[in-house]
Design a protein that fits this description.
about 350 residues, 10-stranded mixed beta sheet
């Protein structure tokens, strides 16, 4: 089994560098425990990339990603860059990485740790034991469809437009990912669309049904996106794997994150045929940057997913989850998941606590 790896690290903007620093501590601890050799190559993207080169995704940074065995990303964006041209905004780095690297499948688990059940805004009986996975198509749909833009119509009125388009192969490959991961979970997939209004997602449903013929062991259901949004807060434990489009997945996975107590708790993996990128699903939160308030656990849990999917090592992922669960069980909390009777810790201390628990695991 391979023991030498290269990881491209893009800290990004806002709290990105802070949470990535703690994730690297965890990565280095696992490297030592498994006697691996991991080379970290850091590069700027997002606002940091724009400040360094005038581009949110510098060519050199993209080259670094293409040479790596895996990519770890912090977060991008902030009000500092909201007035620059749309094509140069930090968020374009994310879209550029996804499209350039072919990262078409986004896996976003929403699992509630027992110690955080009361941190959710929903009742204990609604969220206790929650463990679902959103499989989001990531390189197609309305975020990438052409034509797009702003122009003037025949009446002389300005208008903005985007195109929602999906090809059959795009839907087939993301469906395959969803069905395959469901086999390792509870064998249930709920495909979410708006087939009653949008022809493109009616086609989505048709292709998903056709793909399901190859997975007779998987239970397949369908749900309109508005109903799914409601069901996620009404009865989220009915879901195992949610399969959906780019835009719907973007929205629903953020909603699902709050079931767990904080968006600061959810990791993600973006997978392609050749490349993979790991990141927390939260944003750059520039208002708390540099204040030791950021929760690094989502980024730390993303490191666990990195070992699982890119390095084919399931054990480190389990170690990371166990270490996080142990720290939370001790009553240690960052500000976003703080509750009465708990002990608040800062970003760096939370990272150190997880490392200490990792070192205890044999």
């Amino acid at each position: 089994m391979k023991s030498e790896f290269e990881i491209a690290v893009f800290p990004g903007d806002g709290i990105g560098p802070e949470v990535v620093a703690e994730a690297i501590k965890v990565l280095k601890t696992i490297e030592s425990k498994l006697n691996l050799k991991i080379t970290i190559n850091e590069a700027p993207v997002g606002g940091a990339g724009y400040e360094a080169t005038g581009q949110p995704l510098p060519d050199a940074s993209l080259d670094t990603a293409k040479k790596a065995d895996a990519i770890l990303l912090g977060a991008v964006g902030g009000p500092k860059w909201e007035t620059i041209d749309f094509s140069l905004r930090p968020e374009r780095a994310l879209l550029g990485l996804r499209s350039s690297l072919g990262l078409y499948a986004n896996l976003r688990p929403a699992r509630i740790f027992p110690a955080l059940v009361d941190a959710s805004t929903l009742k204990r009986e609604v969220v206790e034991g929650l463990d679902l996975l959103v499989v989001r198509e990531l390189t197609g749909g309305i975020y990438f469809g052409e034509p797009r833009g702003i122009d003037t119509n025949e009446k002389g009125e300005r208008q903005g437009f985007n195109t929602l388009i999906y090809s059959e192969p795009e839907i087939e490959r993301i469906s395959k990912i969803a069905f395959d991961v469901a086999r390792k979970r509870n064998s249930k997939v709920c495909s979410v669309d708006k087939a009653n209004v949008l022809e493109a997602t009616g086609f989505w449903r048709e292709v998903v049904i056709n793909m399901h013929s190859q997975y007779s062991d998987i239970e397949l259901s369908h749900m309109y996106v508005d109903n799914c949004a409601m069901q996620l807060v009404r009865n989220p434990k009915q879901f195992d794997v949610i399969l959906t489009t780019n835009m719907f997945g973007d929205i629903l996975s953020d909603e699902a994150s709050m079931l767990t107590g904080s968006i600061g708790m959810l990791p993600s993996a973006s997978l392609g045929e050749k490349y993979a990128m790991y990141e927390p699903i939260h944003g750059s939160a520039p208002d708390i940057a540099g204040k030791e308030l950021a929760n690094p656990l989502a980024t730390i849990l993303s490191v666990g997913m990195l070992f699982k999917y890119s390095f084919d090592r399931e054990e480190p992922n389990r170690w990371v989850e166990e270490a996080v669960e142990s720290v939370l069980g001790q009553g240690k909390r960052t500000a976003d998941i703080m509750s009465e009777g708990m002990m608040q810790v800062g970003t760096q201390e939370m990272g150190d606590l997880v490392v200490a628990e990792l070192e205890k695991i044999n």
